[in-house]
Structures are given as structure tokens and as C-alpha cells.
């Protein structure tokens, strides 16, 4: 059954596809890493509790998954940046505004992206934005990508304190649609993972976290089936398909 990759610490339960609930964003089969290698990684906090991943894309804007806010925008919403640890270090900044993509559809999890405006810029060294690709920048089949986050390292486990990373290949749209059904995989989505192998994946509590190819933000952790299942890769929001919206918002705020 399809399930949303949601931050369970905030939501308690996931809201999913047509009839489904999905795990979200834990890094399975990866290894510990340091924030200096991924200075764009953010941790979204509600009352100091981690609930979703995020990505710094300018001095005062970040991006995450829209479905992180399906149950409303929590009070005391803040973001931690510049830290390898989800619960300490770096710098914590208030989030002043959340803008979900205007075409976001919670029923099919399409356009699963939300921009978050920070109250101010980070001053710590290891908080730096990643480059947003141009509209329709190509994502090639079998291209290797890096996914990072603080989710559990095994299915059913809790999120962990130290930032994790895992390398996964991009899956062709044909194979992605074959697995999940063409009605569930739109052109604003793509799959990445090890078909027929599994074991390395994104899963719970890191929805909205980054999938990076080279030096660009190619995807956001969105949804999938299980964690690291051999025939079910994770599904990501295709950032190049929404980059015009991202850049328009940033331009309107004079923050590019």
C-alpha cells in the first residue's frame, strides 16, 4: 500500500495516496556524514521537535515537502541549520512564512513542495544554500544521487541524532510507473533507488529532505512504499519541474 513519507513526530499518522499511508524519509542502508559535506540540509522543528527535513536554497528561503503541513502549520515553527545533529548545534531560526506550491494536490501528492521563509539568514559557517536547477533541467536514468537526513536506519526504528547519507541511482520513468502505476507517477515526480535489490533508501521522518545530483537540488523526499523494499524505489518531487515557481517567489522577495 502506498504511504506518505511524513514526519511522524509532528503528524502522528501519514496521509497518503488514493487509499494509503506511506513511510517517509529515513535514511536506510547509508552512513553517518557531516554537515560540512551537506551545508544546505535543514531540520524543521515544531516546539523543538524534529518533524521533517528541508533544504536551504537562498539566504532566507528553504524548501521542504508540502505534505509536511497537511495537518496545518504548527505553532512555534523553526528550522535548525548548520548542524550534523538534529537536536543540537548550529543555529535555530524562526520560520515566518510557509508557501505550498499552488498546484499541490494532497490526494495524489503532486507538486509536493513548500517554500519556507526564514526570519533572518544564518550566521554559522556550515549553513549554505544549494543551487536550484533551471526549469526542466534533465535528470538522467541511472544517474547517481545523494540523499541525506536524520531518519531511522532500519524499518520501524526511530529517527537518529547524527546526519545520514545514502547514494541511490535514478530509476527510469518507465520502470517507476510500472512499479507504482502510471496514474500515480506524474511528470513532477521521479523514482530513485535499487530495483530488485533494495536495502538503501529514504523513508520515515525525512520528508522534504534533499536528493542532490552533482551540485544541484534535483529532488525532495516525497513518498514511496516501505523502506528499502527490493521492488519499490522512493518517489521524489522533481525540482526542475517547479524551479520557475521557486525562482519567482525568491525574486518577488528580492532574495536572489
Description:
This protein is mainly beta. 9% of the residues lie in helices and 30% in strands. The protein is built from three helices and 14 strands. It has helices at residues 8-11, 173-180, 243-252, and strands at residues 3-4, 31-32, 41-46, 49-56, 61-64, 77-81, 91-100, 114-118, 144-149, 164-171, 189-192, 210-213, 216-224, 234-238. The strands form two sheets. Strands 9-10-11-14-13-12 form a six-stranded antiparallel beta barrel. Strands 3-4-5-8-7-6 form a six-stranded antiparallel beta barrel. Strand 12 and strand 13 (216-224) form a beta hairpin. It is globular. Residues 1-26 have low confidence and may be disordered.
What is the H/E order?
EHEEEEEEEEEHEEEEH
Beta-strand share of residues? 25-35%
Q: What ranges have pLDDT less than 50 throughout 5 or more consecutive residues?
A: 1-26
In total, the number of strands is: 14
Main sheet properties:
6 strands, antiparallel, barrel
Terminal CA distance reads 41 Å
Rg over C-alpha atoms, rounded to the nearest angstrom: 16 Å
Average pLDDT figure = 86
Structural class: mainly beta
The 3D shape can be described as globular
Distinct helical segment count: 3
Q: Tell me roughly what share of residues is in helical segments.
A: under 10%
- Across the major sheet, the strand order is 9-10-11-14-13-12
